[in-house]
Amino acid sequence: MSAPLPRLTAAQTAARLGVKPETLYAYVSRGLLARERDAHGSTFDALEVEAFATGRRRSAAHAPAHPTTGMPLGILHTDIADIEDDELLFRGRRARDLVDRPFAEVVAWLWDAERVDAPDPAIGSAREMVAALPPHADAMDRLRAALTGFAADDPLRHDTSPATLHRIGWTLLTGLPVALGGDPDPDIALSLSRSWNAPASVGPALNAALVLLIDHDLAVSTFAARVAASARADGYAAVSAALGAADSPLHISAAARTARLLTRVRRGLDPERALAEALQDGNGIPGFGHPLYRGIDDRAEALFPFITALPDGGGTMDAVRRLSEVVDARARLRPNVDLALAALASGARLPEDAASTIFVVGRLAGWIAHIAAEYAEPAMRLRPRGEYVGR
């Protein structure tokens, strides 16, 4: 019999929801959250709290005001990605309908730009930057280092013309997998898989993941790229701004956190105990729930069928099923793309932090598309005005 999940104190619950204690108890009095009381005070079920937090985010996603501050939300027009009826679309086409096409081909269609491979000197500079990192450097450290190497080797990077930006984009998409240890290959997914010495059978699943991750509304990393582009930062600098925002526990770093959770379950740890350990950092249930979808994340649903064909696909999907049953029963949350990426890394026997690399390489295509769109807008239009509220 599995051990019960540890319960959250009132202070922990209020912090997780970002509310004051009196607001928390207002939720209790309205029957929105259940609590247990003993001599030490009130405690709350961790999974119920996560489900409630996700539900608040989902409701706020369609609200006219910010869920925390109540201030009006900014809206940017985009013709790149859209989510309608729980389906992800790229320029009006279903993302899942594009997964069988080579990633580079989809990117060329999205950018309307012919492919140009990264030059060898630039790859050499990026490799040297990566090689200089300490052994404990993680995937995001390696990506940032490689990006710096590519930028330093490009004397024309400050030109903000579409042609230069697309050249920068192709340099990163074709050069990053090689700089990280792969071999040059027309198939970007295969080149990336070779950086982990993965078998060729991993290629189709990896290609599907890259396509599905190209863009997803205005995620914080995408918005960071657009803000930098609004100030006319060069393509490398704007991507660097996106990477800074992406390396956070509520964005791309969540994929690595989910991979650690899935690894624990695959190694025999009871799903409830593994979830209890994962919840201790207070950043939600990794791999489950998304405010833009009423059920399962469209990207996860499209990617899961590719996992079963991987070397360890069967055992991986069994762990996914057991985790999903616990979370669905306790929190009514469905898998998101982080869980699908963790399953891809596990089933393909890739390093745990491979999920973050896959996410960044796929999303790079969307970042470049958004940077190009922002270059076409008036400069500095995303510079907000502060409202002073101090003494």
Question: Could you explain the architecture of this structure?
Answer:
The termini are far apart. The protein contains 17 helices and six strands. With 391 residues, it is mainly α. A hairpin with a 2-residue loop joins strand 5 (87-90) and strand 6.
Tally of strands: 6
The coarse overall form would be globular
**Roughly how many Å apart are the termini?**
57 Å
Strand order of the main beta sheet, please?
1-3-2
Low-confidence stretches: 66-71
Helix content bin: 40-55%
Give a quick account of the main beta sheet: strands, pairing sense, barrel closure. Answer: 3 strands, antiparallel
Order of helices and strands: EHHEEHEEEHHHHHHHHHHHHHH
Number of helices: 17
Rg calc: 22 Å
Which oligomeric form is depicted? Answer: single chain
Category by helix and strand content: mainly alpha
What is the residue-averaged pLDDT? Answer: 91
Taken as a percent bin, the fraction of beta residues is under 5%
Layout of SSEs?
Blueprint (H helix, E strand, L loop, with lengths): L7 E2 H8 L3 H9 L6 E3 L2 E4 L1 H15 L20 E4 L2 E4 L2 E2 L8 H9 L8 H12 L7 H14 L9 H18 L8 H7 L8 H10 L7 H11 L4 H12 L6 H14 L4 H8 L19 H10 L5 H19 L5 H11 L6 H22 L16
Antiparallel strand pairs: 1-3, 2-3, 4-5, 5-6
Helix pairs in contact: 4-17, 5-6, 5-7, 6-7, 6-11, 7-8, 7-17, 8-9, 9-14, 9-17, 10-11, 10-17, 11-17, 12-13, 12-16, 12-17, 14-16, 15-16, 16-17
